[in-house]
Structure formats: C-alpha cells, structure tokens
Amino acid sequence: TEVWTMGLHKTDANLGVAQRENSVILQEKNYKQRYDGFDPRSPQSHILFSLFQSAYITNSLRLAQRIDRQFRTSVGRSSRGVKQAGFLVLWKSTMPSVLVEAGFLTDRSEEGYLANKAGQQAIASGIYRAFREYKRELEGTPAE
C-alpha cells in the first residue's frame, strides 16, 4: 500500500511518479482548457500544485499517517509509507486530501486480496478507523 498527499516533491523520484501518472491527460483533446493550462510535463505546474495545496498539507499528512498506520497494524498490509507528489486528483481540493493505493493489481496475491470481499472490508474499515481517529484529534474529543 501507499498513501499519497499533495506535496513539495521532496525527491526527483516523487516528481517523476506524479508527472508519469498525470501524463494521461495529454490524451484528451482539450486538456489545457479542462485543467486550466496544467501541463504534466512541466515542473512549474507541479510547483503551482504544491502552492495551491500548502494550506492543507499538514492535515493531509496527519490523515495519511493514520491511514498508513491502520494498514500496517490493524489491516496487516505491508506499506511503502506516506509520500508526497503533485497528483492531479489531489489538485484544487479545498480540504485535507489523500490518495490511497490499497494494493497493486500487478501482484497476483494483492489482486486476489483486493477482489475479495473480506479484503475490501478490511481496507475500508482501516480507512474509516484512521479517519475517525483523525477527526477526534482535530475536534479534541476523547476516543471511545
């Protein structure tokens, strides 16, 4: 599993992942109009992403860390950790946001886990527990 937040691209590898994932929009005829001039090949576009999201970065990281911990402890999934990159799906969100990769279909055992109802329930429950913990911390309410 991996949990991503909009971020400051601390490594060239993270920037490369974001550019590769976002490049699918180039297949759309009107991508410049649809995505406000965003060009996934441009480092400047990714810098603008980071600036736009900076107001929510701390809480996005906080939520991502809780999801990652739930996956490792309660759900029993191996984790590649919390990472930051400028993914288009996280851009212009007006709240803390995360992208959860619950597994990888290219791995046969993970494909089976993701297709299984019990696996889906475990992943959903882990995300729910992480969000509940995050919300309680923000509101200052005690755990049940």
Question: What does this molecule look like?
Answer:
The protein is built from six helices and three strands. It is mainly α and 144 residues long. It has one domain: Aminopeptidase. It has a three-stranded mixed beta sheet, with helices on one face. The chain is globular.
- CATH class assignment: Alpha Beta
CATH architecture: 3-Layer(aba) Sandwich
The CATH superfamily title: Zn-dependent exopeptidases
How far is the N terminus from the C terminus?
A: 28 Å
What characterizes the major β-sheet?
3 strands, mixed
> So what's the overall shape?
globular
- From the structure provided, what is the oligomeric state, counting identical versus distinct chains? single chain
Features:
globular, 6 helices, single chain, mainly alpha, Aminopeptidase
What layout of secondary structure does this protein have?
Layout: E1 2-5, H1 12-22, H2 31-34, H3 43-53, H4 57-73, E2 82-84, E3 99-101, H5 108-115, H6 117-139
Parallel strand pairs: 1-2
Antiparallel strand pairs: 1-3
Helix pairs in contact: 4-6
Brief write-up:
By secondary structure, the protein is mainly alpha-helical. It contains six helices and three strands.
